[in-house]
């Protein structure tokens, strides 16, 4: 940093679309050949590139007579693009050289970081992980995608791909070693899906799953990989797979929750951190209160990192108070298919001792207050740390206010003050170089004083050193702050200082960048790269949309993260500012409309993918975007946008039918109860979706009521609606559940006539036919539908029905093969309902065959799997089936205890009245039920082993 003239800085980025930055500002380089010249010079990494090599690359089929002159013209234009840094492009006796330092080329930077990380991985895996995460973040998308027709560039792209694989492998391995496996689960899964035959990728994915408590799933992936290698290549995997499988068999069944390590250092909070730990040891509820941007979340992250058992509930992406229990369930990795979501969460927390961190409570105070009140009353082992701009208002609450960072004092070294140290740390990331001079330190001290020591304001100001010297920064920032004037309380002053800093950073953006920032702020949980680019393009910028997005990241107005896919998010303070600017400029309606259209398009893509092989990717996208969909749903409901609401619910029918996303079922019921729905062309489809939702609650009468109402809405089809085949499906499964086989067959076949044989209609008819005793006819029906199934979930459905038919016929070996296939396909597609019912069927055939040992081992594995994934709805069903087997073995006491707990669990599916009573049995907690089940399994396995000796 210096106030005097600075030598020009240059940066070329090739790990994505080609990008040139001069003095921190992006420079557009038009034309494919000129971009190719820049890419070739940059990829040479400081070496000369001959004229012959350049012209051969630009004109591979033959260099025209004017080729060399055209090359010279491109070089001349590139020098003009470089501006003050034109002398970096040197002319040599045989060609040209672009002088770049290692940190000025992202490719060289990534390679250097990888080498450094490998050196320190053994002694400091967390430090290596941080380095590799930074290196991994250098990839911004497909490498030089518009230049791959240039042969040398194409070869370099392959090398970049290999480097990307090496960085990713090293990052995943370091994260596992550092106890941060939770952070790379998505990345490991995405890489394994993209390259399913690459053994290192598969082995790392297995280790990540094991490190996050999913060892059985990891072993299943290993078996799949072994089978795939043999089928597709004729080769066996290397002994490394055997080693990993052997290691996983030694892993305990309990997941080890490891808090995420914050990416940046924590400055000046040592005393507050120690005080928080002391408070949390003595109090049940501590609320960390302070102004926006003061560092509440960052301090809470440090508490999380230093705690052993912790659950983190992020509320920033939420806008709907009703979504708080669902978000808590997700934070607990708890899948609730049925019943009261909050009650299920409380049942899990009541069995634990640990810390629950609830971040960003201020916009949902009433809902958070009610939730925390219930948790404190019913979960004695749970301590709550909340962050909020104001207290929750509970009697048990201990409020701790977080002040800004200490400011530099006259006569003392500014660099020793936390606020200045934070500024300097951020500045070094933006503009590395020599230490600041005494004059520069004085200017930095003045800047942090003017922003009242608020960490977010400090980081925003320091981020501008990519464009300004520190002296320019101080002068420009002072002018912005002075516009607000003085006076008022200290808290008001700090709020004004933060807002002024944000406003100042915002005003430094171009008009296009400001518009993009505003319109992205409506997305509660950020956006992926494709969405960001679509929004940017839709706003019709004057320049390149990608450049505007990159500029927002460079200016610290948006954070970019990469975990399998690129994600752009705003800090809540910045998002609130963006929403304010939207409203002030009268753009809020247009931005909301754009977000709602995005939600409708996403649900439409999901619906279309349910009939294709794209289902697994669509399922992953749906789960990833649920916070944004939740916000969009509240928008359409609050604004009375009926057409959009109908489109969303209709598009999400398969999420309601086959996935553990209970709140989407609530949306269907909410819309079905809206009087405005009457007469809408999509009313029948919505009512069918609502019927499916209540069917999963075990309310077969309500399901039939909705379905018949949907069929009565049929006349509206003439107004452009779609035949409500879903209503017929709901009637069919409701009748099947009540043993109304003939009616179930009639409804299911009618549904198949409407929608086609590729859906589940023929399978439902086959199930009813089989239960009516006509097994051959059932096979023919199911085979017809199964043959036409395309999506993984519908193929899983066909396999499950085939398993049920063969199970009823007593052909247990065949049934088992079908059930295993159904489970594998359903797991791959995210169809959790099918995973559950197929698994239960699989275990039942093993028990029916008298393969008690295998059945017990299977119950042990599946109970452990469902417990780790939090899928208690399926777990209760599995436990009930285990209880039946235990009774068959004469082990009545644990069977009765398990049934008693299931009968009273809020998230257990309803079952017909059992032939035994549980009324006077004690009700065990969940941990005790699992222990009872596992002890009974082990006891009966031991008996079986002894009896065979």
- Uncertain regions spanning at least 5 consecutive residues: 250-261, 483-489, 715-721
Strand content: 5-15%
What is the oligomeric state here? Answer: single chain
Strand order of the largest sheet: 8-9-10-7-11
Q: Number of helix segments?
A: 43
Biggest sheet details: 5 strands, parallel
Total strands: the figure is: 14
Radius of gyration: 31 Å
**What does the overall shape look like?**
globular
Average pLDDT over all residues = 84
Précis, in short:
The chain has 949 residues and is an alpha/beta fold. 61% of the residues lie in helices and 6% in strands. Strand 13 and strand 14 (566-569) form a beta hairpin.
Structure report:
This protein is an alpha/beta fold and 949 residues long. The strands form four sheets. Strands 8-9-10-7-11 form a five-stranded parallel β-sheet, with helices on both faces. Strands 1-2-3 form a three-stranded antiparallel β-sheet, with no helix packed on it. Strands 4-6-5 form a three-stranded antiparallel β-sheet. Helix 25 runs antiparallel to helix 26 (615-624) and helix 33 packs parallel to helix 35. The radius of gyration is 31 Å and the shape is globular. Mean pLDDT is 84; it is low at 250-261, 483-489 and 715-721.
